[in-house]
Design goal:
Elements (H helix, E strand, L loop, with lengths): L16 E6 L2 H12 L2 E7 L4 E7 L2 E7 L12 H4 L6 E5 L3 H10 L3 E8 L5 E7 L5 E7 L12
Parallel strand pairs: 1-4, 5-8
Antiparallel strand pairs: 2-3, 3-4, 6-7, 7-8
């Protein structure tokens, strides 16, 4: 790994991928396609599980079908799982307020109304998916938006 020169600032971290667990793969794939506009890239069938890979705006989401969302005593990041025992998924969106209005009309559970984060970097809101995973929608507040809101 090469360190950047002191005068260069590193780009802001952008979410790239995550994985979640669900008891019903087909239902979760449909939910992410219908509610959040993900597209299905691949599905795989294994002996003990099925999984799907979805994509939205360059963000990859792997959904694994398992008996329960998170086994007791798992070693996931405690900061993102403390409240619900399910990981928190972060998605960049071009307009959080518009996205929340649309999702509310579609009956999606809104956990946190839109508001600016304490650092003033993002406008955020939280929703819950059909499998009880928390999803934080993030709209960058700076003019430096380096994500493609419509995908590839």
């Amino acid at each position: 790994m090469i360190a950047a020169a002191p005068t260069m600032s590193a780009p802001a971290a952008r979410p790239g991928s995550t994985a979640i667990r669900t008891p019903d793969l087909d239902e979760s794939v449909r939910w992410y396609q219908d509610k959040l506009g993900f597209r299905l890239l691949a599905t795989r069938n294994f002996v003990q599980e099925r999984m799907a890979t979805l994509e939205r705006s360059g963000f990859l989401l792997e959904i694994h079908e398992v008996d329960h969302p998170m086994p007791p005593g798992s070693s996931s990041d405690p900061q993102t799982t403390a409240a619900t025992r399910a990981p928190l998924v972060y998605l960049l969106v071009p307009d959080v307020d518009r996205e929340i209005r649309r999702l509310r009309q579609e009956g999606v559970e809104i956990l946190e109304e839109p508001g600016d984060d304490l650092e003033g970097e993002y406008r955020t809101a939280q929703i819950r998916d059909n499998g009880r995973h928390r999803i934080e929608l993030r709209e960058p507040l700076s003019g430096d938006v380096s994500f493609n809101s419509v995908g590839r």
